[in-house]
Design a protein that fits this description.
about 210 residues; mainly alpha; 8 helices; globular
């Protein structure tokens, strides 16, 4: 969208100055530097991740609107920023690798997403509606593979569908969580200074 905006600004300035597209405009150069400076300031890893997950930017109609456009997964700057986000969100190597695989399916419209409706709707639907209608996200897609119930992706849901241990997932490892239980059993935390255990009160479904 920034590229499109800059191109439109250039058209307005060049039309006003009656210049050809390949001529130099000192005024546009100043405006261009301001716009690029603004883009650089707002070009964060999270922004690039959001850009990468917008289905429209992979559709041929968008790519053909202006010469030189590339889909997000082929843009080096966007890809580097996206990976920073992925590594931050998924510090466990196995999870990160699975996310990479699933993102590649989304970006290339392959396997589960190699569907004519899903591809067509990338252009005609609002991005949020596309995700809702096609029921795909980086967590739920993993349910379709056999490893979901036995591999690292079992930890992607709270408790997963089946698991033996929550070791390595921080505070969750102190409790066995279940939406079926009306009472969260009392949990003991060992005092780091004395070695004594302080019991935390039992919380029931009526507690404020």
């Amino acid at each position: 969208m920034w590229d499109t905006m800059i191109e439109n600004v250039k058209k307005v300035i060049y039309n006003k100055e009656k210049k050809e597209h390949d001529e130099e405009s000192s005024f546009f150069t100043v405006v261009y530097d301001i716009l690029i400076g603004r883009w650089t300031k707002s070009n964060t890893p999270l922004h690039c991740l959001a850009h990468s997950l917008n289905p429209r930017y992979y559709h041929e109609n968008w790519l053909n609107e202006r010469a030189g456009r590339k889909p997000p997964h082929k843009d080096l700057e966007i890809s580097q920023m996206r990976m920073k986000c992925f590594k931050k969100f998924f510090p466990i190597t196995e999870d990160l690798n699975q996310v990479k695989v699933e993102y590649s399916k989304f970006a290339t419209s392959s396997e589960e997403l190699n569907d004519s409706d899903a591809i067509y709707d990338r252009w005609v639907l609002d991005p949020v509606k596309w995700w809702i209608n096609h029921g795909y996200n980086l967590r739920l897609l993993s349910r379709k593979v056999e490893d979901y119930k036995t591999g690292p992706s079992t930890m992607w849901d709270v408790g997963g569908d089946a698991f033996e241990s929550l070791t390595g997932v921080g505070i969750l490892e102190v409790a066995d969580l279940s939406i079926e239980e009306p009472v969260l059993e009392s949990v003991s935390f060992e005092d780091a200074g004395t070695g004594d255990e302080d019991e935390i009160m039992t919380v029931d479904e009526d507690a404020d």
